[in-house]
Write a structure and sequence with these properties.
2 copies of one chain form a homodimer.
Chain A (H helix, E strand, L loop, with lengths): L18 E8 L2 H11 L3 H4 L1 H6 L9 H15 L11 E7 L8 E13 L6 E11 L5 E12 L8
Antiparallel strand pairs in A: 1-3, 2-5, 3-4, 4-5
């Protein structure tokens, strides 16, 4: 993505401690099964009875479906209006509780820290922590990762 | 998933250093765009020209599409024939290179270590490292995570 001075959120806007709302979305049985058929055909992601018989207690979304839903909420929450140039990876994902058919999934993103790139002028790295909860306010997933964000003032940095 | 004595791979079979083949699969432009429309609508995942103009150099799969494809290769490679009871999370994902439309994506899983569960008899935790490469044998993604595996001999452990 090219740097746009018009982007709502540039590196400068992601100050430590800033929070963004994520979702919530509601995940349906049909969506859980469709994702599982394509990417994660374990019985507890395909079938209500198998889910009930598993540790998860019901038809449950694949953990990678959960991270993909998080990505959607990040995109809608701030990323598509930002100067993001992508992410080098993920520092950690914790699947704390199952996300079952009909559950709500949403929460907050918090900026943990940020620093200017050592190698590229006009670019910074922002570390985020995402906490996602269900409709009972139970913590369902935590994810931490960093993203590269262009500076609004591209003459700064490095 | 209930423990099956007939499973091809139980905890006992995941000895340190054991390797499994993953894929390869070939990712198409249509699949990249379909995933992006649903979960990650950044321009470089939706449009060839936008991808070429980005750091990624072409229409590139979302990083979460890549992890989902990894999950599919894990499922087909060993997980669906194992005593897996799910995974508590992901220790690390590194997106090293873009996965572009038409690229091949595959590699190996290696068992890094394993230990018996401290809290549940008959269960163990196996740590895996997945390395995925493209058709030019370039490293594209690395992922490390642990999975819970039931023991074939459920009387052992804890």
């Amino acid at each position: 993505m090219s740097v746009s001075k018009d982007a709502k959120y540039a590196y400068e806007d992601f100050h430590e401690g800033r929070e963004f709302q994520l979702g919530p979305v509601v995940v349906t049985a049909e969506e859980i099964v469709a994702f599982a058929r394509q990417f994660d055909a374990q019985p507890m992601h395909l079938d209500e009875a198998a889910g009930k018989a598993s540790l998860l207690g019901g038809l449950a979304a694949s953990g990678w479906h959960m991270t993909s839903l998080l990505m959607r909420m990040i995109a809608d929450g701030y990323l598509l209006e930002s100067t993001s140039e992508g992410a080098p990876g993920v520092d950690r994902v914790d699947w704390k509780r199952p996300l079952l058919a009909g559950d709500s999934f949403g929460g907050t993103t918090k900026v943990l820290s940020r620093r200017l790139s050592r190698s590229r002028k006009g670019l910074g790295l922002v570390a985020f922590r995402h906490e996602l909860r269900n409709q009972r306010d139970e913590l369902v997933m935590v994810c931490e990762h960093s993203a590269m964000m262009a500076l609004r003032d591209a003459e700064r940095g490095a």
